C-alpha cells in the first residue's frame, strides 16, 4: 500500500508475482545491482518476517542442484513461503541478538558460516525521529556484530559483552552484508566503522521504499581478513 492507503505499483506486483510483501523488490534491486547472492551461497536473513527476502534469496541461489541454503531468524514464527522457496529454506524462531554466534554458525552448511548476511530488522518506532534513528543505529550495530564479531567494535570492546570464545562473526571472509538503517547523522559514522572491514561499502535507497520512509540500506561487500 502507499502512504495514502491506495495499492501502489510494488504492492500490486508483489501480489501478481507471488511475493509475500513488496519488500521483495528492495532486495531484488540490490541483488540486480551488486550480485551479492551467488549460486550455492549460504544466506542468513536476520528479521526475516514476513518472508519476502527469503523468497528472493532462494531464487538467487540458482537451481536446487547447485546447493546453497537460506536461514531466516525472527522473533516471530515465520512460515516458509510456498512460492519461490524450496527445501533449501528454513526459519528459526528466536532472538538472534541473544544467540551465541557459534550457535548461529551451526545453522550454516558444514557450520562454516554464511556468504551473505541480510538484516532488514527495524526497531519498534516511537514516532520521535531522533530516538528512532538512534534505535535503528543501535540495532544495526548489533547486526554488524553478529556478522563480523568483535571487529565491529575494534579495540573499544572491553570484553564484558562478548564471550572470548565467540569473537568471530558468522560472515565468511569475502562475504557481503546488508543492513537497514534510518537516515540520520549517525549513519555516516556507521559507514566509517564498516569501511575498514570491507573492500567496498555503498548506500542505496531502493525504489520500492515508501516515500514517507527514512530507511536506507548499507551494502558492504567482500569482508576482509583481519590482520
From TrEMBL:
DNA repair is among the record's keywords: no
Active site residues according to the UniProt entry: 180 (proton acceptor)
Ribosomal RNA methyltransferase FtsJ domain span: 19-222
Record's keyword terms, sorted: Methyltransferase, rRNA processing, S-adenosyl-L-methionine, Transferase
Signal peptide: none
Gene Ontology MF annotations: rRNA (uridine-2'-O-)-methyltransferase activity
InterPro entries tied to this protein: RNA_methyltr_RlmE, RNA_MeTrfase_FtsJ_dom, rRNA-MeTfrase_E, SAM-dependent_MTases_sf
Family of this protein: Belongs to the class I-like SAM-binding methyltransferase superfamily. RNA methyltransferase RlmE family.
Name of the molecule in the record: rRNA methyltransferase 2, mitochondrial
Organism: Punica granatum
Amino acid at each position: 500500500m502507499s502512504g495514502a492507503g491506495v495499492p501502489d505499483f510494488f504492492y500490486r506486483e508483489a501480489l501478481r508475482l507471488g511475493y509475500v510483501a513488496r519488500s521483495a523488490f528492495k532486495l531484488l534491486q540490490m541483488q540486480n545491482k551488486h550480485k551479492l547472492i551467488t549460486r550455492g551461497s549460504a544466506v542468513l536473513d536476520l528479521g526475516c518476517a514476513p518472508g519476502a527476502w527469503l523468497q528472493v534469496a532462494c531464487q538467487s541461489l540458482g537451481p536446487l542442484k547447485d546447493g546453497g541454503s537460506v536461514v531466516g531468524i525472527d522473533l516471530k514464527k515465520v512460515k516458509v513461503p510456498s512460492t519461490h522457496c524450496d527445501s533449501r529454506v528454513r526459519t528459526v524462531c528466536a532472538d538472534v541478538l541473544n544467540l551465541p554466534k557459534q550457535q548461529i554458525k551451526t545453522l550454516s552448511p558444514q557450520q562454516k558460516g554464511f556468504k551473505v548476511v541480510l538484516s532488514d530488522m527495524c526497531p519498534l518506532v516511537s514516532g520521535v525521529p531522533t530516538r528512532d534513528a538512534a534505535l535503528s543505529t543501535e540495532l544495526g550495530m548489533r547486526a554488524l556484530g553478529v556478522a563480523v564479531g568483535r571487529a565491529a567494535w575494534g579495540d573499544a570492546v572491553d570484553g564484558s559483552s562478548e564471550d572470548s570464545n565467540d569473537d568471530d562473526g558468522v560472515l565468511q571472509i569475502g562475504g557481503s552484508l546488508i543492513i537497514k538503517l534510518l537516515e540520520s547523522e549517525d549513519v555516516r559514522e556507521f559507514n566509517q566503522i564498516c569501511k575498514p572491514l570491507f573492500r567496498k561499502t555503498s548506500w542505496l535507497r531502493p525504489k520500492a521504499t515508501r516515500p514517507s520512509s527514512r530507511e536506507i540500506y548499507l551494502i558492504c561487500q567482500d569482508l576482509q581478513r583481519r590482520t
